[in-house]
Amino acid sequence: MNFELTPEQEEFRKVVRGFAEAEIAPFIEEWDKEERFPTETVLKMGEIGLFGLLFPEEIGGGGADFLTYVIALEELARVDSSMAITLEAGVSLGAMPFFRAGTEEQQRRWLLPMIEGKALGAFGLTEAHSGSDAAATRTRATLDEATGEWVINGQKTFITNSGTDITSCVTVTAVTGEREISAIVVPSGTPGFAVQPAYRKLGWHASDTHELVFSDCRVPAENLLGERGSGFKLFMEILDEGRIAIAALGVGMAQACLETSLSYAHEREAFGGPIGRYQGVAFKISDMAVALENARNLTYKAAWLRDQGLPIRRAAAMAKLYSSEIAVTATREAVQIHGGYGFMEETPVARFYRDAKILEIGEGTSEIQRLLIARDLGLPVDT
Ligand SMILES: Cc1cc2nc3c(=O)[nH]c(=O)nc-3n(C[C@H](O)[C@H](O)[C@H](O)COP(=O)(O)OP(=O)(O)OC[C@H]3O[C@@H](n4cnc5c(N)ncnc54)[C@H](O)[C@@H]3O)c2cc1C
Q: For the chain: N or C, fewer Cβ within 10 A?
């Protein structure tokens, strides 16, 4: 057993940390306030190879392992989780379905620009009436044999990266027959595909999220991704892997809370000395450090399992569940340690506090993670 990262991974961590501190930290307060998706910065993330990391070098990727990708997400989230989720949704949700199930032509057209970081793909699973119960999708796609086109009707809710200037397409799940759900690619700008105005969210203000509406939206039959009827299974496998990535966001956020709480506990004085003298403050920070260590270990272990080609469902659910819950706790305690300043938007922990909550909801709520773990333990849990 070896808990050390490789020299390449350590070096890479420094590169991403440097990028996040130079290109994101100085601007994030403004983007957050204006609820602005910073396309130019996302393109720069592409230039340093973040979107291609996981993909083979032969197709223009970085050929890195999943742990390296986790490190990138962790470092971005340490500064800002809107940018981390932009990368996560771009890679795990946008590009990965094409890598796993795309034809050569689909990969050439859609995946390669995503790997280069010049285009973003979105993942349309959730609907107004089906989130956790994603198989209850009502969006339908009917094959018009006369024209060789899918005709899509329905809507998708809360879709990340779906309305940016560089979004090239969204892959949606749709009912294509009796007990049959397929994945279909809808290019941005297709007539009948309407991207609704951006949501106003509690957090992740610099991340792009929209409702999507499909009204007799026609796409060519060859936009089917994978086999007909395999869409739901494909999306569930994509989510298993995505959960390790969400866990990495929790680790990065908790890391930031630990660092900032530690330094504030040294510098802030009350009753004639630094607040870190008081056990009421110091023990919060000790607990934060323990939780962070556990979350990082669970997340890296899940990434390692994925890199070994071993089953990941339980490990990914455990990492996602634990990391997101400790991130919520860490951000709450960090605000508490910063007192009234922690409530002010000029202090980054205020943004972290708003941003953390979504980790317990997106890509499967905490309840759904517990359900997956219980089932994997062999319990006959009902849904
Ligand atoms: C900012 C943001 C970005 C998102 N991005 C995307 C995206 O890119 N693509 C996409 O497809 N989706 C996306 N989502 C959707 C997200 O995955 C869903 O919101 C999430 O899966 C929960 O679904 P729901 O909101 O319908 O809640 P519901 O499923 O209605 O759940 C409501 C509550 O009931 C609980 N619950 C439901 N079923 C059970 C059960 N069987 N046992 C116990 N408790 C249960 C849930 O845990 C939750 O607490 C995003 C959401 C947000 C907020």
A: N
